[in-house]
Amino acid sequence: MDNALFELNYDDRQAKLEDAIRKTAPGTALRHALDMIIAGHMGALICLGDTENVLAAGDDGFKLDVSFTANRLFELCKMDGAVVMDKDLTKILRANYHLNPDPSLPTTETGTRHRTAARMSLLTRATVISVSERRQVINVYVGGSGFELKPVSSLMVSVNQLTTAMQNTRSQLDRSLLRLTSLELDNYVTLGDVTNVFYLFETLMTADNELSDCILQLGREGRTVAMQRGELLGNMDETYTLLIRDYASDSSEDAARAIRSRLHEADNAKLRSAKYVAKLLGYTDERGEDSIMTPLGLRTLSRVSVVREGMADKLVDEYGSLQEVLEAVDDDPARLGEIGVKNPGVLANSLHRMWGKSE
C-alpha cells in the first residue's frame, strides 16, 4: 500500500461523515450491533469500506466473507482485533484483524482503539468505528476526524431544548415581521429594525441547523421531530433570503446567499451591530441604527396570493421599490396588468388591507 494519505476536503468529509451517521443511526442494524456491544461492556474496532487499503494496513485475523447481521457482528467483536466490512454493510470480510497504521500519523486521541481508528481513517478512505470498553462511548472517524454518537436519551434532551428555542424565536420573529411590514408600507424602516429581524432569523436558523443534526443522528427515531421542525421553520428560509435582497445594495440571489453566509459566521455582538450589518449589505456610507432604509418589497409582494413566482421581481424591476409599487396601485392599476399581474385589483386590495387603507 502507498504511504500517501487520502486527504478529503471539508465538503467531502462532511458528506462522508453524514453518510456514516446515517448508517449508525438508531433503527439500523449496525446501530443495533453497536448498542449490544455497549450493553455487553465490550470494546470494538470496525472498518467500513476501502477494503483493499484497510487489509493492506494489517495482518492475521480470520477470513470470513459472510453476510452481515447485527448479532453476527456483536459475536465477532468479542474477539480482539478489528472487524472489516464492505462499504454497503452487506458482508463481514475479516474478524480478529490486527491493524497496524503508521504510528507517526497525527492524532489527538489517547485511547488505543481511538488512536488506531483515527489513523486508519487518515490512511484509508474507510469509515472507522471505535467503541471504548472503558468509557462505553462510540466514535465514528472519517478523514482523521472523530464524531461521538450520542444515545437517544441524550439527543432527545437536546431536541426538546432546541424545539422550545425555535418556538419562542419563531413567535418573536412573526411579530417582528408583521411590525416590519407595517413600517415598510409607511416607508419608515430604520437600519435598527432590519438588524433586529436579521438577528432573530439567525437565532432561528442556528437552532434549526442544530435540530437538523439531531434528526440525522436519531435516524428512524427522528421522523416525528422532523415533522415538528418543518412546522416550526415553515417558509422562513425563503423569507430570510427575500428580506436580505430587499435591503442589500446588490439584490441578486447570489449576493443574498453570500450575505447570509457571512451573517451565519458572525458572532452575537456583530449580529446586533447596525454598522456591521450595513457593511455586509454593501453600504459604504456611515449608517447608524436610525438610518432610514428603503425596501424593494420582494418579501411583502411575495406574500400576496396573486403575485406568482417571479412576479415580485418583475414588479420591483418595473417600479424600483415597494413605495413606488404602492403609488402605481393607486395611480394606474391597469399598468399592473400590462406587466403580467393577472388580477391587479386583488393585488391592490391586498396591499391596501396590509397598509390598513382598505375601502
How are the SSEs placed, and which strands pair?
Blueprint: H1 10-23, H2 29-39, E1 44-48, H3 51-56, E2 58-59, E3 62-67, H4 70-76, E4 82-85, E5 91-99, H5 112-123, E6 127-131, E7 138-142, E8 145-149, H6 152-185, E9 189-190, H7 191-218, H8 223-233, H9 236-247, H10 253-265, H11 268-271, H12 274-280, E10 292-293, H13 298-302, H14 311-319, H15 322-331, H16 334-338, H17 344-355
Parallel strand pairs: 1-4
Antiparallel strand pairs: 1-6, 2-5, 3-5, 4-5, 6-7, 7-8, 9-10
Summarize the structure.
56% of the residues lie in helices and 13% in strands.
What is the name of the CATH architecture of the largest domain? Up-down Bundle
Instruction: Count up the helices.
Output: 17
What is the class of the largest domain in the CATH system?
Mainly Alpha
Categorize the overall geometry. elongated
Word description of this protein:
The chain has 359 residues and is α+β, with helices and mostly antiparallel strands. It has 3 domains: 10-149, 3-Layer(aba) Sandwich (YojJ-like (1); 152-294, Up-down Bundle (Ferritin); 296-359. It is built from 17 helices and 10 strands. The protein has helices spanning 10-23, 29-39, 51-56, 70-76, 112-123, 152-185, 191-218, 223-233, 236-247, 253-265, 268-271, 274-280, 298-302, 311-319, 322-331, 334-338, 344-355; strands at residues 44-48, 58-59, 62-67, 82-85, 91-99, 127-131, 138-142, 145-149, 189-190, 292-293. The strands form 2 sheets. Strands 1, 2, 3, 4, 5, 6, 7 and 8 form an 8-stranded mixed sheet that branches. Strand 7 and strand 8 form a beta hairpin. Helix 6 packs antiparallel against helix 7 (191-218), helix 6 (152-185) packs parallel to helix 8 and helix 7 runs antiparallel to helix 8 (223-233). The model has no long low-confidence stretch (mean pLDDT 89).
